[in-house]
# Entry
Amino acid sequence: MPKKSMLMLFALSLWLIGCGSVSAEDVSACELPAEWPAAYVLESIDLVDTRSGTVHKDQWIAVSNDRIQATSRTDERSEWNELEALDGCGLTVAPGLADMHVHLNPEDLPAYVSAGVTTVRNLWGWPGLKTLIQQVDTKQIEGPTIHGISPGLDGPPEYWPFTQLVMTPEQGRASVRKQVADGWTTLKLYQDLSHDTYLAIVDEAQKNGMAYGGHISRKVGLRLALASGHGFIEHLSGYEVELNPMGQGGAIAWRSIDESLIPELIEMTVASGVWNCPTLAIFSLIARGDAVVSSRRQAFVKALFDAQAPLLIGTDAGIGRTAPGTSIHDEIQEFVEAGISTRDVLRIATIEAARFLNAEGEFGELVSDSQADFLLIEGDPFPDLSVLRSPEAVILKGKRVR
Ligand SMILES: [Zn+2]
# Structure
């Protein structure tokens, strides 16, 4: 039973037997403050350990300068006595979540934070994004920490705003150099790049030390992309083309697949080291609730997981289908329905995101020196991750924002 509930029971029983020393107001005595100080020790909390998938009871964390400075797991409480103590009311503290596939609209920032998403990866760069990232980093604007990649490089036709249309290998090389000059370190590659242009882009990206990934162009194919150092694949793009006997692509292609081909594709995936962000929930919407499509995609993700192919949790929020923020919980639910344990799903939504971004220790786990982004929830999340949908409080860079 959570400490808060135990206290309430205890207070209630004293009141009922007429002890008189505890008033009715004291029943709700433990309330988290609305405004949090800049530096504090949050105590009387349980801590979610996303690395081991356990909850440590009766812990504390010390927070100042936007960061967790110390935790009861590794540090002495007495060294932090000068900081104000905050009563965590027996709640459980879990790291903020990372949505690793969004299309960020500035007006959506509060929705991400309210849903417990404290890190996002923006999958299609646009001119004002760098400024927005800086404004969030310097706390002029409240929002999740943003990791951005370049505008999409694609062949015609142009689907999305700010697409870098590249029709020839020369244009491909020039576009890569332009993205480098614009300060991007990762390229978004898209679905209509020609074979030769793709190879030129990959070569130029490698020369400039850039990462690259995205969709798999039909003119390139999954096999060549995996062999060419494609670092990440969104939506399981390209797999369905290999599995569908007619070579069709898109959500509906998953209705008809040759399952005997799956093991070889999984093996190639693992060997390549590519990360997959399958965006299951939005595809369930695109397939209009087609249970065959959803279950086949879930089964494929489970097969990737079982083979230890790295996975990311992302929603594709921001293009008008999945809701910014709350849809991460739908994606988490899809991963659980796929048969992946809640411990592993929460690890993927936190630590694995940090590992992908070369930011281990910066977010995704409650350790010293990590950014103080966390949720306060009631009870142990591992029996049912849906408890993460309605946090009691969300803390961003040490400050309560919800
Ligand atoms: Zn997208």
